[in-house]
Amino acid sequence: MKFIKWLLALVVTLILLVTVYLTVFFDPNDFKPEIVDAVKKQTGRELVITDDLSWTFFPVIGINLGGVSLSNPEGFTPKAMLEVNKAVAEVALMPLFSQQIEIAELSLDGATINLVTRKNGTSSFDGLSGDNSKKAATPAAETSSNAKLNDINIGGISITNTQINMIDEAKKQTQVFTLKSFTLGEFALEQFAPIAFEFSATMPDMTVSSEGKGELKLSRDFTQLVVNGLKIDTVVEGESIPNKKLETSISLATQIALDKQQLSVDIAQLTAASITAAGKVGVNYATKIPQINADFQLGDIDLDTLLPKTETAAATEQAPAASTPAVEPDLSALKQLDVKLKFTVKSIKVANLSTQNWLMDVGIKNGVLDLTKLNADLYQGKLLVSAQVDARQAVASYQFDKKVTGVQIHPLLKDAADVDLLAGTANFDVKGKGKSLIPEQLKKNLLANGHFDINDGALYGVNIPQMIRSAQAKLKGDLSPETKEERKTDFSSLSGSFSLDNGVATNPDLAMSSPLLRLAGKGTANLLTEALDYRLTTSLVNSLKGQGGSDKDALAGIDIPLAITGTFQKPEYALDTKALLNNQLKEETDKAKEKLKDSLLKKLGGF
């Protein structure tokens, strides 16, 4: 028992001796000139410490530091690169004898960092790394790798009122990032510790504010870091932001294998505006290009509510034409990605076009984006797409294979382009390739081939039987007003193939059939001007009875030319009445022949 008392007395005496030595014989302020000179030699910068350095002692030993500033290179504005109002570091003394670090407090308050980039390209970081930095790093690294700690305990870490000013003199822009607070609660190895932060940023085109909280745990061997229950709420505001304001919230858990350099994130819930999602992300950052695997499940997405509102037609007409020529999008970043993504989406609405049940697999590697699969429900039908974008060249190339089956074409065209042209159940397939992603060049350079067929549908904007009946009546001298009927031609099938080159779709074999008539021909549709140019022939295969005609129509079996011109929005139909006139002359001639024949028979006594 006496031995323990003598041991404790000895320890207390040693602590008192260390305290007396540090306070009387070892004044940390004596080293300020040496520290300043060392920084000057190493970086060429001025380090200023205005406040006196002071010790703290038992049960903790530490140092208080304040009034510290480090200058920017000569001629820079602001002159100071770093300014610190107050910094405190306190370490418990007794645990150090057992190779344990117990930090009572680490705090930093009122730090300001000014990072300047000048017009000539020089920056605040120039000259900070000296020639001796690499040499000094080697023994330090070896020492740290050989050192072993039994435990680490931190009473708390607090960082408050830290501001980073990023100043770009060439662009005359300043971006301000403010860490209002960051706190880490009581921390020990193998135990969860609470964390919280509050952050804001002011940039030329937007402002960001974010706050979050959660808990983290570090394994005793420093190989595993776990973050649980992390919830981050963010608000982004600016003119370029959808509806000028976007609120997001995310709840997640993260595991980091520090030894294997692997990261996994489990996102329990993500909300952005009206979009909700959940998913998992895995990252292997041990490779030269980090490998990323992600699997997300998203709810309903209405992109129309996020896209900027379109201007009125009058405002659009008054707006001056853009003088800046379009440039190819820079996709060079794809070369630095190794990503596999899988998405499922409940529904997507864009440009008033509605789709459901999306399933999409995407891969990005070596500058090539592969859309291996895209399935979706589209207006009572199915959409299946595969595509590839090759960004290894300055001008990207692409290819695709698209199939649509069982789609109701009328509501699709109305929603997508407000085109009231066709109705029916459509099947469509097209394969294509091209270069350039500039919209106008994309239309010109696209080469494609495809086929379509539409069943049990209608052609809107024209009533072909009524056109034939009206023209026939007028040629016979009947000038009575036309009976108003719906401008629609029903058909049982409409089919054809097409090719696309230089922005023009060529359809050489359009064919339409119905119980009443047949229509066939060819034409073109210009995707650049939206102009239509079709030359078709139509013929009756039955009576117009039920369509206002007689039981046996004189035009049955006669080909009548039909032209379709105009645009996608306003197609124009014209019937060639010359065939009708020729048929009428033939009909009158036949009647005259019959009368002459009857007259001759009577004169011959009925023979």
Question: Could you give a short description of this structure?
Answer:
The protein is of the alpha+beta class and 607 residues long. It has helices spanning 2-25, 32-43, 132-146, 313-318, 409-417, 439-445, 464-475, 578-603, and strands at residues 47-49, 54-56, 60-71, 80-92, 100-109, 112-117, 151-154, 157-168, 173-184, 187-188, 193-203, 206-218, 224-237, 245-257, 262-272, 275-284, 291-302, 338-350, 353-365, 368-378, 381-390, 397-408, 422-435, 447-460, 488-501, 504-513, 517-526, 532-540, 560-566, 571-575.
Which terms summarize this structure?
single chain, 607 residues, alpha+beta, 30-stranded mixed β-sheet, 8 helices, 30 strands, 50% strand
Q: Report on the biggest sheet.
A: 30 strands, mixed
Mean pLDDT: 80
Could you tell me the radius of gyration in angstroms? 40 Å
Roughly what percent helix?
Answer: 10-25%
Intertermini distance: 158 Å
Protein structure class: alpha+beta
The general outline is elongated
Beta-strand segment tally: 30
What fraction of residues sit in β-strands?
over 45%
Oligomer: single chain
Number of H- or I-type helical stretches: 8
Uncertain stretches of 5 or more adjacent residues: 7-26, 131-148, 311-322, 544-552
